[in-house]
Amino acid sequence: MAKFLSRFILFLFILIILFVLYTWLTLSYSYSNGSRAGFLQKFSKRGWVCKTWEGELVTGSMLGNQEKFSFSVRDEELAKMVSSNIGKRVEIEYDQHVGVPTNCFAETEYYVKKIKSVPDIRDELLQKAQPGEINK
Asked: pLDDT by residue (tens digit) across 13-71?
C-alpha cells in the first residue's frame, strides 16, 4: 500500500510539473503577433477569482461592417493607458497566445503589449474645413 501511495504522489508531482511547464511555454511564446486599429469601446477588470483586464475594440467603418476584437491586458501600467483612451480611435499591438490552460491569465488569447492614439479622420476633416463650409 505504501508503494502504491508513493507512486501515486510521484505521478501527481510529475503531472503538476508538466502542467506548470506547459503553462510557462504557452505564456512565453506567442503563436502570432500583429496590430489592429479601431475605436476602444469597452475596458474593464473582471473575474471571480482571477481579476483580468479585458477590452473590446470595434474595427471597421462606423456605418456598417463592424467587427469586435476582444483583447486582454496583463500589465497594470498599460491598463491605465488603455483606460484613458476609452471612446477614442486607437491602434493596439498584440501577441496571440494559443492554448493557455486557464483564463486566470486572461480571458482571450490576444495580449496587448502596446497602445497608441490614432487621430480620427473626421476630426482632421473638420479642422481643415473652412468655418462656413461645415453647414453646407
From this structure: 999 999 999 999 998 999 999 999 999 999 999 988 889 999 999 987 666 678 899 99
- The gap from C-alpha 65 to its chain's centroid, in whole angstroms, comes to 21
Distance from C-alpha of 126 to C-alpha of 136, rounded to nearest angstrom: 13
**Cell numbers 461592417: residue:** 65
CB 133 within 8 A of CB 108: no
Helices (H), the chain: 2-28, 76-83, 121-128
CATH top-level class for 31-122? Answer: mainly beta
Domain ranges in the chain are 31-122
Q: Where are the alpha helices (DSSP H) in 36-132?
A: 76-83, 121-128
Note the pTM of the prediction, 2 decimals. 0.78
- Report the alpha-carbon angle 102-105-107, nearest 5: 75
